[in-house]
Amino acid sequence: MTNKSHFKKIIIGAACFMMMATGIGMVAGQQSAFAATTSPASVQENVATASSAPEIDNVATVSSASAQKKASIIAVAKSLKGKVTYKFGVNNPAKLWFDCSSFTKYVFAKQGISLKWGTAAQSKQGTYVAKKNLQPGDLIFLSVSTPGKINHVGIYIGGGQFIHNTIGTSFNGLLISKVSDYSSRYITARRVG
């Protein structure tokens, strides 16, 4: 193979790579890979074209922003531990009195995500998530009274745990529990935002 033929294949490969990467929103950084195999004049043309092209979504940026938002949701929820009181059918942000779903509604609203009030309504928002694919910030829905009927919601915080607003014989407010402790009551999960 001649040097000229080899150089031509490198340029074609780099151009294909540039087109593929641009198609999935990865324009930034590819110019340096392209620059390694092209002349300075063509790099200048590509930089000018890329900067004048309409902006396209960057999947990595969106994912990073979403992860930051989810981390903030969890941080807000945890910061309210010891401050929130459980009251059935109540949504009183001024006094931090919530039921389980008004608590999730309040926490998600702090990050600009609008949830409806009520476990049944929230269980239809966003997209379905399989239990094995839970990610921090996902809503998990449980049955705590009528078997098989959604009537409780919490926020998955990672590590097999979730935070929820609940009441017990000696407890009232936010609790961090293991999902596995609720395996017989677990119904579904949703990803919103």
UniProtKB/TrEMBL annotation:
Residues 67-193 form the NlpC/P60 domain. Keywords: Hydrolase, Protease, Signal, Thiol protease. GO terms for molecular function: cysteine-type peptidase activity. Residues 1-35 form the signal peptide. One of its GO terms (biological process) is proteolysis. It holds the Pfam family NLPC_P60. PANTHER family: MUREIN DD-ENDOPEPTIDASE MEPH-RELATED. Belongs to the peptidase C40 family. This is Cell wall-associated NlpC family hydrolase. The lineage of its organism: Bacteria, Bacillati, Bacillota, Bacilli, Bacillales.
